[in-house]
Amino acid sequence: MEEQTHKTHRPAQSGPKADKRGKGKQQSGFNDKAFAPKSGRRADRQGRRNVERDQTRLHVPLVDRTPDDTPPPVIVAIVGPPGVGKTTLLKSLVRRYSKQTLQEANGPITVVAGKKRRLTFIECNNDLNSMIDIGKVVDLVLLMIDGSFGFEMETFEFLNILQAHGFPKVIGILSHLDLVKKQSTLKDTKKALKKRFWTEIYQGAKLFYLSGVLNGRYPDNEILNLSRFISVMKFRPLVFRNSHPYLLADRIEDLTPRETIRASKGKCDRMVTLYGYLRGTNLRQSTKIHIPGVGDLNMTSVTVLGDPCPLPDADSEKRRKLSEKKKLLVHAPMSDVGGVMYDKDSVWINVPGNFTRGPGEAPQSVHQGEGEQMVIDLQDIDTTLADGISRSQIRLLGSSFKSLTVDATLPSQEVSDTDLEEPLDDGKFLDEDSGDGDELDSNDGVDPQDSDEDAESDGDGASLTSQGKNRRAARRNATRPLENVSEREEDGEFAFADSDSELGENDDFFHPKTIAESHDNDLDMTKEPLLLENLQEWEDEENLDAIRSLFITGDESAAGGAEQQDEDEVENEDPEAASVAALAAKKEALKRKFDEQYDDPEGDKMDFYDEKKDELNRQLQLNRAEFEGIKGDVRTLVEGYRPGAYVRIELSSVPCEMIENFDPHYPIIVGGLLPSEERFGYLQVRIKRHRWFAKTLKTNDPLIFSLGWRRFQSIPIYSLDDHSIRMRMLKYTPEHMHCYATFLWSCCSAKHAGFRLSATGVILDIDRSTKIVKKLKLTGVPFKIFKNTAFVKDMFTSALEVAKFEGATIRTVSGIRGQVKKALSKPEGAFRATFEDKALMSDIVFLRAWYSIQPRQFYNPVTSLLLSDKSRWQGMRLTGQVRRDEGIKTLLNVNSHYKPVERVPRRFNPLKVPKKLQASLPYASKPKAMKAQSKKTYMQQRAVVMEPEEKKALALLQQIRALRKDQVARRKEKQNERKEVHRKKVAKEDMLKGDKDKEKRKDIMRMAGIKHKRQTEVEEGTTPRKKRRLV
What we know:
- This protein is an alpha+beta fold.
- The protein is built from 29 helices and 31 strands.
- Strands 7, 8, 9, 10, 11, 12, 16 and 17 form an 8-stranded antiparallel beta sheet that branches.
- α3 (86-98) packs across α7.
- The longest helix has 73 residues, at 948-1020.
C-alpha cells in the first residue's frame, strides 16, 4: 500500500482561532488586570496612598558644595561599647583597602577606596564628648553591637546624639556571634536584634554579621561584603555641615621655639599647626575657629599642601581596578604607618638604627664610634650651653675672682650651626637639605612620592618602619626651629650635591649659612607699592572725566554718551554681523515663547520638587563658572579655601595643656564659626526631656549643652508659651512634652549615672534680650466693708506700691471680681477697692501679677581636651552636691520649720426669719425650730424598783444569753475547719483535672499537626514512604 502524503499544517495567522490561541498563552511581564481594583473608591484610595508614599521619600533639596573633581575623604566612624571589636574591625578594613597590617591604630586613617572615593576611618571611644564630636562630622557610622549580649546603653546614647545632629548614614554590625553555639538561639538572636535595630533606625536598615576572628582579623569574605556596600553608599549633605567649614585633624605639631618652652618651664602658650582635609564650605583666612574641648582660637595662617593620599590619576582611570601601588597608599600620621611625615617645609623620614636610641636600649649596649656616641649623647641633654657654663666654675685665669658667664640674649640675626642642627626628641636632625624641602618641591618639581622612593632606594640601609609608641610620642611633641632656618635666595648662591658622597669629597663639613633676615619692618606685601610717577597721570582732567561717569555722583548723560560711543564703535567694526546676531536672538526668543504656549505646556512642566532641584543646580553651576577662569591665589582670596584641599592651619596662643595632654584616641575637630556665632546673647530653644533620663530637669540647675561646635555649661530657665501672650516660667520640665529654655551661650547633655543624655532640642531664636515672667500672687484681707466697697490691708507695704497697681484686677476666694482704686492714708499699704458684689470679712483678696525674671549670665566652656584624664572635667555643682561631697550639713532656717496650725472654729449665727415673713410663707418653708425641753418628763423622773423574783429572773436570762453566745461561736469555728478541709480537697481535684485537660489538649493539637502535615505533603506530592516494622 502506498504511503499517503499529508499536507503540512499551517496555523492561522489571523481570524478568531489566531486570537483565541494568543489569549491562551501566558503573557510576560506585569499583568495590569490581575491587580486592578474592583471598585473606584478603592482605586482612588490606592492612588492617594502611592502618591503619599512617593512624597515621603523626598527630602528638602540642598546644595551639595562638595567639589566633583577632588572630594574630601568620607569619614567613617566605628562606634560601639567597650570590648565589642572596634579596633579589630578597623584593622581589618585598613588591611582590605591598603594591604597593610596596623600594629596600633590611633587617630584618623585615610585610605583610597576607589577611583573617586577615599575613606577616613576613626574609632570612637566610650567618652560622651567624643561621641558628640564624632556625631557632628561623621558621614557613615559603623555601629557595632555585641550579638551575644545585645544592645547596651552607649548604643542608644549615640543614636540619640545622631538624631540631634541630622542623622547620617548608619550600618549595623553584629559581632561575637561565634559565642552563640546553638543554631536556633543564633537565629532568634539575629531576628530580635534586627527588629530592634530597624525600630531605632528605619525599616530595612542594613545589618551585617561578623562570625568570628581569624588571625587577629575578621574573615576576609565578610569584610569584602562590608567594603563593597560602603563603596556604593550615597551621602546627602546635612544643613549644619553645609553652612560651616570644618576639618578633622589627622596630625598636630608644636612649632613653639624650644628656648621659649624651656624659659617658661613648659607653661607658655604654644604655636600649633593642625593638618587635615577641609570639609563643608569654603574656609576664609579671617574666619574664627572653635576646637571642641579647647575653645575659640584665631588662625595665623592657612596653607594648602600636597595631598598625602591622592586619588588615582588619569592613567589608572583606563584600568578597571586600582593599581597595586594605589592600594598600598595609606595616610595615618598618628598611627605611624610608613615612617614618612609631610610638612610645609620638609619631609621627615625616620631612619632607625643610625643615630637613635631605642626605648629600652642601654647607653653602652652597642659598640659605637666616638662621633656616633657624641651625637647620641646629645639626646640626653636637657639644658643649654649657657646653663652648663653658669653652673660651672671655669676661670679664664688662675687669679680671676669670677667665673665665665655667657650672655643668653644673643642677637636675633646670629644663627649658629648648632641652632640649625639641633637634635630632635627622637634623634633626627633638621639639616640644610630637609629645611628646603618646600623650595625643592616648587623649583625642581620633586613629588613627595618620588622622594619616598628615592629614600627607600638609598644604600644606607634606612627603612621606613615604625618604632612603636615612644617614637610616636616623640614625633608629636617634637618642636622644630623652623623660624631660625635660613631661607635660600632665588638666585641660588650654593650648589646642592646629588648625593652624600659628593659632599664628602672635599672633607668640608662646615658650609657658610645665609643669615636669616628679620621681616618685622617690611611693608605689607599684600598691597602693591605705589610710585609717584604712576600717580601723575591722574592729574590730567581728561582722564578724570573719562571715569567720572562710572561713579554714582557722575553725569548720566556722559555715561550714556560713553555707552553710545562704545556701541558705535562695535557697529563700525561689523554692522552686518551684529544685526544678524540680534535678529537670530530675537527669533530664538519668539520660538521658545511659542513652544511654551502651544507645544503641550503640561507635558514638559516639572513639579515643585524638580523645579527646586533644577534651580539649585543651575545656581551651583553659575557659581562654579564664575570662578572658573580666576587664578588659584586670587580665587582663594575671594571665596576662601575650597573643600577637599589638604590644609595646614597654624594657630597661635594655644593652651600648653593641649599639647602636653594630647591623646590620639580623642578626635580634634576644627570648626569654623559664622559671624552670628561669635557674639554672646540669649538663646531660646525648644527642648524635651528624654524619656529615659531618670531625673526631672529643674530651672536654674546647670546643664552641659552641645550646640553647634561649642560645648559649654549654662543655667537654663524653662518656660511655656501662655496663649501667645507671655512666656511663663516653669519650675520643672513637663512630662512627655516640649517646653522652651532660655540661657546664655557663646541636643543637651548632662552627666548622670544612668542614661547620660538628659534632653534634646532645636534652636528657635538668637537674641540678646529675652522676657520671661513668673507668676506672683499677692494676698490681703478686708478690714471694712461698705456694700460693694471694701478697704483691704496686708497686700502692700506702702502707698507707692499701691500707686503702681492702681486699676489692677483683684478677686476674692469666693469668686467676686474687683479692682484696686486708691491708697489710704492709714494704715500704711491699705487701699480702697470695689467689687461686683458685697465682700465678706472672712474672704481673702488676692491679686494675680507677673514678675519679670532674667536668666543668669553664666557660660562655662567644657575644656576636656586640656585635661590628662578627659572624662574628669567638672563644671559648676549644685549646693546640695557641694554639701554632700564636703560632708556639710544643711543649714536649717527657723522660719522653714513646720508649726502646728491652730484654726479657731467659726461660729455661725442662727438664721432669724421675721414673724411677718413667716406668716406669709407656706407651711413647708416655715422654720421648724423647736426649743429644747427644759423640764424632765415623767418617764425620766420615775424610779424602777424590782422585786427579788424579778431580779432572779433577769439574772437567769442573762446567763442563758451568755451560754447561747458561746455555743454559737464554737459551732462557727468547727464549721470553718470543715470548710477548710473541703476547700483543700476541691483545689486538689481541680489541679488534677487541669493536668488531664492539658494533656488532652496536647494530644488534640498533636493530631491536628500530623493531619495538617499529611495534607500539605499530599498537596505538594511528596508523601513519604512508610517505615517497615522490624519483627
